[in-house]
Prior knowledge:
By secondary structure, the protein is mainly beta.
Amino acid sequence: MAPSLVFILLVWLFIRHSAISPGRSGTAAGLDVLVERIPNTEATAEFPFKKVPRPDAPGSVRSARFSLVTGGQDVNGARVEKLPRGYLPTEPDDPRRNFFFSDGSYGGRILVDLNEAIIVQQVNTYSWHTTPRAPQLYKLYAGIGTPDGPPDGSNDLLASGWKLLASVDTRPSVGEPAGQYGVSITARSGSIGVYRYLLFDCKRTEDVDRWGNTFFSEIDVVAK
């Protein structure tokens, strides 16, 4: 093979690998973040992940209550309450079947009430789009709460009693960001912990235009 063709092939392989890299995610001690991306040329309504559990994993807490602490949901998208319901999009740009924060905003915070303290085995998040709205950028916090409700979620979260579980950033450093993304947060052994509340502190993935907020397709909290 000619040297120029070898160089082109190596560059192509590098870009393709980078485009499906897990970004810059991290977790608290003892936890792991698994990230998988499916390019839109291979994506389907079944979210055919091979490593990350597919949506609606066994044990998913469908009775979990989702609400917004800060930020507003976009009027063109689904309500935040749809996220644990298995109401998946059927195509890459399907706003009515995805939740996303208002265009022009810088994200917001989603509170998940599991109704009681449970053993959380894993937390899985899914997204799908044709633009930089596909990757996911958020921090996941957990708390037990008090008889009066969850820890405060409007100010400094750590000072308010929340525990940081993971920082998720699936934006590829190089290559096309579009596609389906699956994220699975798990413990290396045992469970993530016993919690009643989870809090997703979500950020937009880019500032080039007004349309940087992730299209979240589903969020599954899996109990042990």
